[in-house]
Amino acid sequence: MKTQDIDKKIGMPDVDAEWAKFEHDVIDAEVKSHKRVMLWGLSIAASIALVIGFFLFAQDADEQAETMVAIAEKPVVPNTHAADVITPAKEETPATEEMPKTKKATKVKQHSDIGQLAMTIPSDTKKEEATSNHPATEESVKVFSSVEQSPGYPGGQKALQEFLKANKRYDGLAQEYGAKGRVMTSFLVDSLGYISDIKVVKVMRMSYDSLRLSQETEEMQQLVKQQITAQLSEESKRLVSLMPRWMPGKMSGKSRNVRYMIPIQFP
Predict the structure, then answer these.
(1) pLDDT score, position 50
(2) Closest by Cα among 235, 257, 119 to 185
(3) Does residue 127 contact residue 120 with C-beta atoms inside 8 Å?
(4) Residue 190 CB contacts under 8 Å (≥ 6 apart), including other chains
(5) Contact status, residue 260 vs residue 189, Cβ threshold 8 Å
(6) Looking at residue 139, what is its pLDDT?
(7) Cβ of 247: how many Cβ atoms within 10 Å?
(8) pTM higher than the cut 0.70
């Protein structure tokens, strides 16, 4: 007897039929349910993507429209570059013709004043006023080393010595090493009595505090002497530059430019 017949006889259920029914009712239904969920999810995703794409497309279209409107509304600026270039060129023509005349006039003016400038100090207003009425000549430019009447300090030699004593500075290395000496200083006294072109001719008869100087090495002693000489020379030029207006030297009854020299004693 077959197994199926036996099962039917004893009342046992048909296993194959039950399993087939289980597959159809449960498993197939579950698979179909999963497929429905997946399809539903894909449909939603596609819808969202479509909406986003449509939104972005609309936004790009709005931006392009705004750009086109801005370009259309922008005012057109006329090109004036060519006019700017042409206009100066036309104005420069008369100016170019007048340039040689201006330069020529400047050269003539400088030539007429060069003699007086050589004898005056530009910072002195009174001197400039005086020289402006006296055009330069060969005699006014010439410098004499010897004249009939030498230039003189206002008040004489005594006043000159008092001025030097009152304004002379003696300090620094010169004072430390007890330097003593005479500085021959040369300068120009022009025909109006003003001083210029100050030079140191010679520093002579120098002596020092031998005890103080002997404390230094030979090399240092030479260096100290050079520095003291430079210090006294600068002080001599400073003193002369502070002097007031002198009485000019004269030759044949006329005031002349005279180079003069005085000794300045230290200390």
Answers:
(1) 80
(2) 235
(3) yes
(4) 119, 120, 196, 248, 257
(5) yes
(6) 60
(7) 16
(8) no
